[in-house]
Amino acid sequence: MKPRIFLTSALVAALFAGANAQQAVSFKFDFGPGKAAPGYVQVLPEAVYSATAGFGFDFGTRPSGLTRKGSNPLKSDLVRSTTPFYFSVNVPEGNYEVRVTLGDPEGTSYSTVKAESRRLMLENVRTFRGKFITKTFIVYVKDRKISTGGQVALKERELTKLDWDDKLTLEFDQETALSSLEISKVDDQVTVFLAGNSTVVNQEEEPWASWGQMITRFFEPGVAIANQAESGLSLGSFIGQKRLDKVLSVMKAGDFVFVEFGHNDEKEKGANDGPYKSYSDRLRLFADKVKEKGGTLVIVTPTARRSFSGNTMVNTHGDYPDAARKVAVEKGVALIDLTALSTQLFEAMGPEGSKNAFVIYPEKNMNDNTHFNPYGAYELAKIIVEGIKANKLSLAKYLVKRPAFDPRHPDAFAEFKWPESPKVSLVKPDGN
Predict the structure, then answer these.
(1) What percent of the chain clears pLDDT 90, i.e. is strictly above it?
(2) Is 18 left (phi over 0), alpha (psi -120 to 50) or beta?
(3) Domain of life, per the record (predicted)?
(4) pLDDT per residue as tens digits for the range 350-376
């Protein structure tokens, strides 16, 4: 691992200015109005993000600054908020180790932390009066440039997404007491690239969600999740928009690629389309290209749509799951049968209970049996975790220790806690 470079407060202004901002790869921030700890940059509540400053509170959010008694400058001041707030730092593409210290000498705190476009990093972290907790997680920051030439052809909605800007943005929810933050670029992480559609992409707005933005919660440092999925894509459009080229340009030997498609491939009706034609051929291309780079491909069959006949789920994907299974066997790559496992999950929930996993809100005139809300996405991410274990992938050693999950026994919806993010949309994502 390369040595880290830390900025002192005296250097930060110069390093954040102009072109030099892109050279800064490690930052240490001390939050609150008290004296800054040596080697840390003080961040006051009125520090608003700008391209010139290079860091600050973002999107009109602003916590309160508090000073407490004590001789430890890192823990004798802090910022607090009972509403969501964002903090952004200008950084180049790469994997970043993020260390947050949460707590208050004179109060409790309760925090959920998301990164970029609502990727779940920490959930329900509680500190008691006078106690502090430091948590570490990995955030992948991407841009659209491809080192081998060209750039990813983004959709219009992606042009304003936090996933594609030039910042690392953290969202702090619930009753957060933030004492300090360290961000360091790291090059020693195993990177897991996700290729998929709206059931995989980082959905930026409530109430939409996918398993790709929840899976980050289940890994310890050592693994970075690089979600390259986008709503409405098929294998063909993912490749055509140079998203596979992007993945191949940045992946290294030992990295992983999880690929889940099918929902939108089913709509392609050309002479050479179909589950055993273009769909299978493109999965083979993924397998060959990832192998050439020394990586490991994992094929994921498409998540089931909510479609019941009585109490039994109906397969809406035709032969596409079977085709994916056959390619996995042919190419000798790992398979997670999300079609079968999500079918078990929704049947266990039942025709009515399964509505809690989807964006089905009659009071908002929303009735979507394809796209998931945070609860449904969280349950699906747990299925992917169990698939990693079942395939004995080397990634399993980085998983957070927690009880095994059986989709036939889903978590109780009433016990799921999800603090909503400020961004909300009633517009359905592309794809169905």
Answers:
(1) 93
(2) left
(3) Bacteria
(4) 999 999 999 999 999 999 999 999 999
What is the pTM (predicted TM-score) of this model? 0.93
* Mean pLDDT of all residues in 266-292: 97
Domains in the chain, CATH or no CATH each: 9-184 (2.60.120.430), 189-415 (3.40.50.1110)
Distance separating alpha carbons of residues 378 and 269, to the nearest angstrom: 33
